[in-house]
Amino acid sequence: MILERMAQTREKLYRAYSEFEDAKMELQERLKTRWKEYLQRGESEEKNRILSLLKQGYTGEQLEELLSKEALQSRPHTR
Q1: What is the model's pLDDT at position 56?
Q2: Which residues contact residue 66 at a Cβ distance below 8 angstroms, ignoring those fewer than 6 apart?
Q3: Which secondary structure element, helix H or strand E, spans residue 56, and what is its range?
Q4: Residue ranges per domain, the chain?
Q5: Distance CA 58, CA 40 (A)
Q6: What does the alpha-carbon distance between residue 32 and residue 48 come to, in Å, rounded to a whole number?
Q7: In whole angstroms, what is the distance from residue 43 CA to residue 6 CA?
Q8: pTM for this structure?
Q9: Could you read off the pLDDT tens digit of each residue along the chain, which spans 79 residues?
Q10: Contact, 53 vs 66, CB < 8 A?
């Protein structure tokens, strides 16, 4: 919540400066590009991992169970 408030305050302070908007837009475009690259790399790594597990003799059911367990473990814990 604090970070959100800080972002809102920063927006209000710099809204009048076009340089801020230009820099913000440029940063957003860079982040989009980096994020796409990251996702593509992650997909490729995951495919290679699954192929490796298949070569090791895992069945489709075993892979599904393993990946489901890993997905559950990687979720952030909430209280």
Answers
A1: 92
A2: 53, 58
A3: none
A4: 2-73
A5: 25
A6: 24
A7: 34
A8: 0.45
A9: 788 888 888 777 767 677 777 777 887 888 888 878 877 888 888 888 888 888 899 888 888 888 888 877 877 665 5
A10: yes
Please give the Cα distance from 24 to 21 (Å, whole number): 5
Q: Which residues, in sequence order, are CB contacts of 15 under 8 Å at separation 6+?
A: 21
DSSP 8-state code for residue 16 = T
DSSP codes joined into one string, 17-76: -HHHHHHHHHHHHHHHHHHHHHHHHHHHHHHHHHHHHHHTT--HHHHHHHHHHHHHHHSP
- Residue in the block written with tokens 């059911």: 61
Structure tokens of 14?
């710099």
- Distance of alpha carbon 54 from alpha carbon 31, whole angstroms: 34
For residue 27, give both structure tokens. Answer: 């940063």
Give the C-alpha separation, 1 to 18, whole Å: 27
